[in-house]
Fold:
Amino acid sequence: MIKWIAVFLLCITCSSEVPAQVVKVITCEYPLPGTVTKDTVYYSPLHKLQWSDFTGSIRTESSSAALSFPGFSYDASGIKKGDTVFVNVFLQVYFVKSGSWVRKEAVNSYSLSHEQLHFDIDKLAEEEFKDSLVLKSFSPEYYPIEIHFLFWDYWRKMNEMQEQFDNETHHGINHAAETLWQNKIRILLSGSGQGSRHDE
Structure:
């Protein structure tokens, strides 16, 4: 009798699920870069913003010449196979049309370039977040929380960079500083493999 109990317990041990020990993160852009919907433009280096993307109502109480509404986000889902949890992270850098507007006097190529740089900065933050996802080790039990905290770290960095950009360029008025930022962002995007609301 004792022998059969021992065999039974051994079978339970052998058939129990192996706990996950490794988290492997796989990243991709979704929706596809360059996708344009009724209210959203998804970032692509081949698709630059157009003034027609600014469909929001002008805020009469605002002294700004234009306002753009870009951002970045993610969705994640995990599946366990053996001792590994495979986590698919779907990344998006987006521009919300209905949250963005421009006054007639600001409709020119220079102002549009400034708004594009805001969009580029969000792309930079997303690329840095993506690199960190691949390099960082996550725990099988707490990876959703760890990824979420990591995302907010880069969201804060993005907002700090946006604020620095507007402060140093005086919202685009300082053309020399604007040129420096254009070059800086171009170099950073090239190095990353490629770029909130912002009042002007």
